[in-house]
Amino acid sequence: MNNTFLNMASIGDFDPLNASIPATKVEITVSFCVLYTQGMGNKEWREFGRTEVIDNTLNPDFVRKFILDYFFEERQNIRFDFRLEKALGGIPGKKCGTIIVKAEELNNCRESVMMQFCGNKLDKKDFFGKSDPFLVFYRSNEDGTFTICHKTEVVKNTLNPVWQAFKIPVRALCNGDYDRYVHDFIGEFSTSYRELSRGQSQFNVYEVVNPKKKGKKKKYLNSGTVTLLSFLVDIEVTFLDYIKGGTQINFTVAIDFTASNGHPAQPTSLHYMSPYQLNTYAMALKAVGEIIQDYDSDKMFPALGFGAKLPPDGRVSHEFALNGNPQNPYCTGIDGVMEAYYQSLKSVQLYGPTNFSPVINHVARYAASVNDGSQYFVLLIITDGVISDMAQTKESIVNAACLPMSIIIVGVGPAEFDAMVELDGDEVRISSRGRYAERDIVQFVPFRDYIDRTGNHVLSMARLAKDVLAEIPDQFLSYMRTRGIKPSPAPPPYTPPGQPLQTQI
């Protein structure tokens, strides 16, 4: 049961119950094992859970499920250990067993509902005029307490208000119960989600009752009525719905080859090629790339450089292929990108200035050709310094904001990155020539904030990847939703050859 109270005036700003769930739940079904998860920093394996034991079968189907939080921005390694009473013998040329792992996103509580209400002949509450009514919705908690879950806007000076339609998660409305509001109010009524779901009808015209007036006046009927004008259910789709439907994440790298990085042969250079450890460029590239490559089926990544003089004629380029092939700048896997990066350091001359717009426009050209939701583009820019083409870069970002792409900027080295913070647009939405970006597509982080004091580079890289990738799913969804692009249906689950589909009655 839901409680809805009609109030005479606003009691302060209220943020509706729309906080996003920190992670999607994923259900993993396995044909027996003990499941271990791995720590992000120390890589220690910890037992997460184990299935029940089923005797006397070579094809166990276990009831126990493992529920894990899924995070786009982390590599979540899991290990399956099999425990059998009898050892399996390895016979040459014969298969001795199979494990089938099936991951399924749980879709409970993903519905939202759009509703609109109006009032009719409400009580006059203001001494000199009419009322300023608004609706407040409450849901009941399991412990018997009540929590405000939505408040409409105030409609000034009317006894017949029409409130704006609003959208609210179904989990915010279900399981409510009747309670009394302590502030002065016009009246209240109770309803249920099931009643509301009938839509606009005679069932959803509610008498607004003021208990104080009802107790004092024998002839009191009501303080007006509230009518449900519309009720529309919408299932909230998630990032994983699109990935399961086949959407590809295309990952492009752009690396700063300006002279301010220092000569690669010098240990003080941010591009220093040490035989013993990765430089900060390589660490940032590997950290982000190894997470995002799992969302790209062909594992072929364009890798670009900017701010260098190229052989043989020494021309300055802000959009050159790290593998030396401008017609085909694709590298095989993140290891291939790393190799092309190291080879470029040996062949080009670090120069300048630091221009971002050419590489942003490079990716934008590809993103502009795909508007059906089948692909999304992520550009990683790794840079050390002050940007030289700020106006052009802002223009490029504003243009790219209406395309299926996101930009990650990792700042390396000790420089000030004030311009990067401005490009990030978290505080003030980025604009160019009076035109604001349609959505926020840039995420900036300085790598120095992630250097582990104990020298644990693995932990540094994991923390960096977690923060720079955390916004990608929301940026992705904002593009798909504003374009009305729904995820394609997921392909049917894999059935091993020779196994018939089972039907249970």
TrEMBL record:
GO BP annotation list: cellular response to calcium ion
Bias type Pro residues, positions: 488-499
Domain of life: Eukaryota
Pfam families, A to Z: C2, Copine
Region of interest: Disordered: 486-505
Protein family membership: Belongs to the copine family.
One Gene Ontology cellular component: plasma membrane
SUPFAM superfamilies: C2 domain (Calcium/lipid-binding domain, CaLB), vWA-like
Domain VWFA: 250-454
GO terms, molecular function: calcium-dependent phospholipid binding; metal ion binding
Gene that encodes the chain: CPNE8
Protein name in the entry: VWFA domain-containing protein
Keywords: Calcium, Metal-binding, Repeat
Organism: Amphiprion ocellaris (Clown anemonefish)
InterPro entries per the UniProt record, alphabetical: C2_dom, C2_domain_sf, C2B_Copine, Copine, Copine_C, VWF_A, vWFA_dom_sf
